[in-house]
Design a protein that fits this description.
heterodimer; A: alpha+beta; Sulfite Reductase Hemoprotein, domain 1; Sulfite Reductase Hemoprotein, domain 2; 4 domains; globular; B: about 100 residues; 3 helices; about 25% helix
């Protein structure tokens, strides 16, 4: 877990004091809205459809129990008793009043949290593999590097007025769980001749023009990482377009200039910057690494776990879907689903947050992660504690066994909250989850990624969903476009649009037709949706979705 | 599709609460759409809007929204405005909650 130095604490407190005064001046009328808006955005405060929204950074999704308890306290005292975990591993409070936000920020500062750079044209919260530090398949823990990057990018004087927002994701594994190919910069820890370095991928992104990132450099030595990142952002800061916000992201810069041109510019800038990031930066990295030491693993018998696993089918089913292999064979990585059927994806009540904090503290080495898939991870649970953990979660409505299944849906807030949205996302997610639960088909369908966005900005990652749903406003009516075959992993791919969209009433039946088609076409139960899709392509799904068009073509 | 006549209301969000508000016929900001002043003339709405936009001590992001009159009630013409006038669909929060608690 990162640790604030005295400097960090003072800095955040000072920022909060400044913002408190800015809020007071806005309320008194001394500041106009035009003057105030950039100041509130710098502190994560948006004005949404029904209320202000505060977006709090959870650095690379890492929390401890004291922080989770504080989030619960904020939800209860200043909001409506819940929080929404986002696809950028952050948390959003949907109902704070402007006058309470300074107090909320002070409460966050008391547990080393803030909302700085959760908005605006800056480098946003760095995201990371939510299994970091625990995954059996990682080369090394990416979190120290994510923290290093966070410290470099926070309040970086050159990067406060970028052409557009800038997002960096880091993973330590070949199996990409951090969607690094859909970020402005995606970083992968790799080993070369016994040395660690970073593969640097740039120009990925979703939104209006989805693009899969390209490898800019296969191996950047870690000692050069910050200078290299600074070179990339600096090049884009100069040549990135500021005339059109839809063309401002680095993906467009890379597309327009070409990867080789960008690489040459970065190399030139890197020569200038390289010397500036040596001793002090590397000392800082060493210090950070010491804060991310593995937890004091304990060793003990797991026979009780084996017995419970065999004896209790409900527990067994939860273990099978919600846990994965830990690097320590006596341990498991647990995913707590925030996708109970019919609930809002990513929402947790204050009471649930307290239960999570409590089990993390007592059973999971006080470590919690938020995943970009809007679930909560306990990365280190000894297998002998799994039954007690499951029992505690069950009583809080947190033991839904659906990770990776059709009801484990990513959904942005959509038009239920977001001022930018063009249609709702949440009710579509609720309907899909409830429908397939009622049909008892979820387990039969098996692994599938459904991702829903309520506008082209694609916060719900719909382009890289196996089934992607995009909500649009078509002549004053909600309309949902479907894409199929998207992939968020190391084999990243943008999904194929099926054709015309569906109305709010027709989107669930359309999804059912897609699933029926898959079930009919798969070779056997072991062939997951995405494999079947890759094998048979779009056509059979289009035929199922648009039977009239098929008839019309046949008649031509 | 029948074309219902379109009227205008002036709407914004409240400066401190962020809540959706509407301008009423007496120039006060109210929380209930049914109490809003309805303009049948776009020109009058526009000139009133400019005055309302200067009331920055209460209202943020003032704009004109389209409404219809149906059975004597003001109804938002667009679904976005309908959500603003009621609240989110996943919880009984926002205006629908306030209405239920009056």
């Amino acid at each position: 877990m990162y640790k604030y130095s005295d400097f960090d604490s003072d800095f955040v407190r000072e920022r909060n004091t400044q913002f408190r005064a800015q809020v007071a001046r806005r309320i008194s009328g001394a500041l106009s809205e035009d003057e105030f808006k950039p100041l509130r955005l710098m502190n994560g405060v948006y004005l949404q459809l029904h209320a202000y929204m505060l977006r709090v950074a959870i650095p690379y999704g890492t929390l401890n129990s004291a922080q989770m308890t504080t989030l619960a306290h904020i939800a209860e005292r200043w909001d409506k008793g819940y929080g929404h975990f986002t696809t950028r591993q952050n948390i959003q409070f949907n109902w704070p009043s402007l006058s309470d936000i300074p107090d909320i920020l002070d409460a966050l500062a008391s547990v080393d949290m803030h909302a700085i750079q959760t908005s605006g044209n800056t480098i946003r919260n760095v995201t990371a593999d939510h299994f970091a530090g625990a995954a059996a398949d990682e080369v090394a823990d990416p979190r120290p590097y994510a923290e290093w990057i966070r410290q470099w990018s926070t309040d970086h004087p050159e990067f406060q007025f970028l052409p557009r927002k800038f997002k960096i994701a880091v993973t330590g594994s070949d199996n990409d769980r951090a969607v690094i190919r859909a970020h402005d910069i995606g970083l992968q820890l790799v080993e070369q001749a016994g040395k660690l370095g970073m593969r640097v991928i740039i120009g990925g992104g979703l939104g209006r023009t989805p693009m899969i990132g390209k490898v800019l450099e296969d191996f950047v030595p870690l000692s050069d990482l910050l200078a290299y990142l600074e070179s990339v952002v600096s090049v884009w800061n100069l040549i990135g377009r500021r005339d059109n916000k839809y063309k401002a992201r680095i993906k467009i810069t890379v597309h327009e200039h070409g990867l080789d041109d960008i690489r040459a510019r970065v190399a030139e800038r890197f020569d200038q910057l390289r010397g500036q990031y040596q001793d002090a930066a590397l000392q800082l990295l060493d210090q950070i690494k010491s804060h991310f030491a593995p937890p004091p693993y304990r060793s003990g018998s797991v026979t009780g776990f084996d017995r419970d696993y065999r004896a209790n089918p409900v527990f067994q089913s939860w273990i099978d879907t919600n846990t994965v292999a830990h690097k320590n064979p006596e341990y498991a990585i647990v995913t707590i689903s925030l996708k109970a059927h019919g609930q809002t994806p990513g929402d947790a009540t204050a009471q649930q947050m307290r239960v999570i904090a409590d089990v993390a503290k007592t059973l999971a080495h006080d470590e919690i992660r938020i995943s970009h898939e809007q679930n909560v991870i306990l990365p280190h649970v000894h297998k002998s504690d799994l039954f007690a953990l499951w029992s505690a979660l069950k009583s809080a409505g947190l033991a839904t066994a659906n990770i990776g299944l059709i009801s484990d849906i990513i959904a942005c807030p959509g038009m239920d909250y977001c001022a930018l949205a063009t249609a709702r996302s949440i009710p579509v997610a609720q309907q899909i989850a409830q429908r397939f639960d009622a049909l008892e088909l979820e387990r039969d369908i098996g692994p599938i990624k459904v991702k829903i966005s309520g506008c082209i900005n694609a916060c719900g990652h719909h382009h890289v969903g196996h089934i992607g749903i995009l909500g649009l406003d078509r002549a004053g009516v909600e309309n949902y476009q479907i894409t199929l075959g998207g992939d968020a992993t190391e084999t990243a791919r943008v999904g194929d649009r099926t054709g015309p969209g569906f109305s709010a009433d027709a989107i669930l039946p359309a999804i059912e037709r897609i699933i029926d088609t898959y079930l009919a076409l798969r070779i056997d139960r072991d062939e997951p949706f995405i494999t079947t899709y890759r094998r048979v392509g779009l056509a059979p799904f289009q035929a199922a979705l648009y039977p009239q068009e098929r008839g019309a073509h046949a008649a031509e | 599709m029948s074309r219902k006549p379109i009227f205008k209301v002036i709407t914004a969000n409240h400066l401190t609460l962020g809540d959706v508000i509407y301008l009423d016929p007496w120039g006060a900001w109210v929380r209930d759409l049914q109490s809003a002043q309805v303009f049948d003339s776009p020109e009058r709405a526009q000139s009133r809007l400019e005055a309302a936009q200067n009331q920055t001590d209460v209202a943020v992001g003032v704009y004109l929204a389209d409404v219809h009159f149906i059975d004597g009630a003001i109804q938002p013409a667009h679904f976005r405005e309908a959500f603003r006038a009621t609240g989110p669909s996943n919880y009984d929060h926002g205006k629908q909650q306030q209405a239920n608690h009056v």
